[in-house]
Specification:
The chain is an alpha/beta fold. It contains eleven helices and ten strands. The protein is 44% helix and 18% strand.
């Protein structure tokens, strides 16, 4: 394992670019491989067994392509497979749920925390369990949204009923909730719209996840000390051009090295 090996980042689609964007800002000298498994999306409707199988395949891909660490930039995959992945592979693997839970517990003033997530993540109670590790008396309200990921992947602005759908989900939370966790990495892409329907504090776990990654790499003495800008490669199992359009709009830079991969 060498310091100039890549950091693997994966999600069921474009959502994980919300984490990648911050990684590229804070760790500009690291090489990164982003794997968008949009050909197998949506993850939120799959079983634990299906998700773990998909995650193992992606982990194998990363190891073949010389990755020194992996970020699961997907809440659903984190909930379903993080523990199994850590048992199976011996490189640092960071999920998004623990960093997001810790941040929410620290930010909330009254301990009433809402979580907007996929149906799988909400039903797994992963955030409920994790938040209570940091705030034992917290009340956690989780809402599973079956349609949001697909709408974001296909082009959020093209759906005329997007506000109505979003309001329908957010209105399920009690008025006492003072903090909302974006429990799916797709959701920061539509944060401006979410803010129209939720007036409290909003937690995007991305930055805290990257901080945990840095600490892990530092502990292993594996931070890249090169002065050159790192390269970022993208692999997509679904519609490559659709991914490019949405990713470039959010990332703010051109997606140059983009490759199709079998799902």
């Amino acid at each position: 394992m060498k310091k100039d090996y890549s950091i693997g980042v994966f999600d069921s689609g474009v959502g994980g670019t919300t984490v990648l964007k911050i990684m590229a800002e804070i760790l500009p000298h690291e090489n990164m491989i982003y794997y968008a498994d949009s050909g197998n999306a949506p993850y939120g409707k799959k079983t634990v067994e299906e998700l773990q199988s998909l995650c193992f395949n992606i982990m194998d891909f990363f190891l073949k392509n010389r990755c020194k660490a992996v970020v699961i930039a997907c809440n659903t995959a984190t909930a379903a497979a993080l523990t199994a992945i850590k048992e199976r592979y011996d490189i640092p693997v960071i999920g998004v749920i623990t960093p997001g839970s810790k941040a929410a517990a620290n930010i909330s003033k009254n301990g009433h925390i809402a979580v907007l997530a996929t149906p799988f993540t909400a039903n797994s109670n992963a955030y409920g369990e994790e938040i209570k590790k940091f705030a034992k008396k917290a009340s956690v309200y989780q809402e599973g949204c079956s349609e949001l990921c697909t709408m974001i992947e296909e082009g959020w602005e093209t759906f005329e009923d997007r506000g109505e759908i979003l309001d329908g989900h957010i209105s399920q939370f009690p008025g006492s909730a003072d903090t909302l966790v974006l429990g799916c990495t797709h959701y920061p892409i539509i944060r401006e719209d979410i803010e129209k329907y939720f007036s409290g504090k909003i937690v995007d776990p991305a930055r805290e996840t990257v901080i945990e990654l840095i600490e892990s790499l530092r502990d292993e003495d594996m931070l890249n000390n090169s002065k050159e800008k790192g390269k970022i490669e993208f692999f997509v199992s679904g519609d490559k051009e659709q991914f490019r359009r949405t990713a470039e709009k959010f990332l703010g830079f051109e997606v140059k090295k983009l490759y199709q991969i079998e799902k």
